[in-house]
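Checklist before submission:
- one chain only
- standard amino acids only
- sequence pasted in full

Submission:
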Amino acid sequence: MKITRIEAWPVTMKLAEPYTIAYETIGSTTNIFLRLETSTGIVGYGCAAPDLKVTGETPAGVIEACSSVILPAFKGSDPLRPVMLMQRIRPRLKNQPSALAMADMALFDILGKTAGLPLYNLLGGFRDRMRTSITIGILPVRETVARAIDYTQQGFLALKIKGGSDVNADIERIVKIREAVGKKIELRFDANQGYSEADVLHFVAAVRPARLELIEQPTPRAQDGLLGRVTRQVPLPIMADESLMSLKDAFRMARKDLVDMINIKLMKVGGIDEALKINAVSRAADLEVMVGCMDESALSIAAGLHFALARPNVKYADLDGHLDLTDDPASGAVVLRKGVLRPTGRPGLGFNPDY
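Returned file contents:
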């Protein structure tokens, strides 16, 4: 089997409703889709979600990476040697993790389709479904509570609340949500780097009755010492997100005991293969793992889900980045029922997007 044709194209998708986090408001996203054709007729698909503030990439930069790096490295090669192929391109794309993730994803898709198995089975097959949280951006308290009630009525049992720009408003939102949704709904909070040490301590003390499950990235990513101090002081699990961009970051956080949990996003770390390595470090350090996402097509959400299903210490999923996207060409790549995600059951990533 050889890779005979490589194509990449951008798709801009609007959000049905823009949302706000600590440092920006998002109304649309551009993903790059990758198609690898092979000499046997099997086609592998991947998807990148470049974000200048998170991954340091632009859509144009990912398209250029495909034409100048991925195409010459992959064309004519055997796609069933994914580690070899990724090693060819990794040095030149070390600062373009979503481009790496896109290529990695497409190779794994081919591997699964060649084997005739869903990818999560090939990767380990620990479970076949997983609960996901759904995210509520920064909104006024009344709207936040209404959104929380609506999501729980749809069957979601885990809510992630964004904050970080006003600690007192964040406290009020969390307390009011707990009052509205009852005791059984899991509540997670993401400050998106917006808090100082004093803010975290004040927030944790004030929301103690609301029984938060975890706090994600409360402090700025560049301040490891601050993150470690917060982790040691508060009784709630602290999760790293923006602070984790690579395997090296995971090792540093584990070695210095900076956090209790980590959030692995394929777009930040460079794909499934790298996520598996980071997960191994986390498991050795007894750190629980969440698989997360950005504003991504359901195709890359499927890739994150297959990774999460394969490993026992991936305890949490926050794979909702596709739910509010309009005109997603890969809509249907995962199945969502009452807050639980399942793969389609078809080989590879389980979906062939039309375009």
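Reviewer check: The two ends are 25 Å apart (CA to CA).
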